Amino acid sequence: MSTCSLTFDDGPDEVWTARVLDRLASEGAPSTFFVMADRARRCAGLIDRMRAEGHEVAFHCVDHVRHSELEEQELRDDTLDGLRTLAQLGATIRRWRAPWGVVTEATRRIAAEHQLELVGWSADTQDWSGDGAALMHSRVAGGVRAGAVVLLHDGIGPGAQRCDCRETVELIPRLVETMRRRGLRPAALPETGG
């Protein structure tokens, strides 16, 4: 059966990541979480829970800054710091999503140095905007297809126009239902080939 992946950025968040994990568990939807390392350090129990429940933990950043705004050494230091932090939490990191999706030549070099697959997305819910679940679903449903990588957020990052992730939690079952109606199975990125 073909798969489709839900991916989450900007967490973990003590309140909202836990609720996202609850909803994913009830839907039977393994996912990939691109975590911010400092938040992961503060919420180590959520990293343990992600791994225990069959989700992939991947790297997002330490500082949520566009790679185009960083010198290569700054980016290298941020990446090494983040990967060390996540390793201390027991996570083996294979994938990296750059903040804002901005990938530079330096990003590619550093990813190669650490044998990290750079991952973007093919369908963007724009859940950071504060829209309701129904509107977000209508925006992204056309992109829910075999091999799709759907972008959501389980934390409030820079630029967010919302104060919580409530509508993202409500969006999850709608997306999973759409996948299953189309003969797709929700899966973390390792199964889709990212």
Note the main attributes of this structure:
194 residues; alpha/beta; TIM Barrel; six-stranded parallel sheet; two-stranded parallel sheet; 42% helix; 17% strand
Describe the structure.
The two termini are 16 Å apart. Strands 1, 2, 3, 6, 7 and 8 form a six-stranded parallel sheet that branches. Strands 4-5 form a two-stranded parallel sheet. It is built from eight helices and eight strands. The chain has one domain: TIM Barrel (Alpha-Beta Barrel). 42% of the residues lie in helices and 17% in strands. It is an alpha/beta fold and 194 residues long. The longest helix is centred in the middle third of the chain and has 17 residues.
SSE order and pairing:
Layout: E1 3-11, H1 16-27, E2 32-36, H2 37-42, H3 44-52, E3 56-61, H4 72-88, E4 95-96, H5 105-113, E5 117-118, E6 123-124, H6 133-140, E7 149-153, H7 166-181, E8 185-186, H8 189-192
Parallel strand pairs: 1-2, 1-7, 1-8, 2-3, 4-5, 6-7
Helix pairs in contact: 1-7, 6-7
Brief overview, please?
With 194 residues, the chain is of the alpha/beta class. The chain has 8 helices and 8 strands, in the order βαβααβαβαββαβαβα.
The helix-strand sequence is EHEHHEHEHEEHEHEH
Radius of gyration: 16 Å
CATH top level label: Alpha Beta
CATH superfamily: Glycoside hydrolase/deacetylase
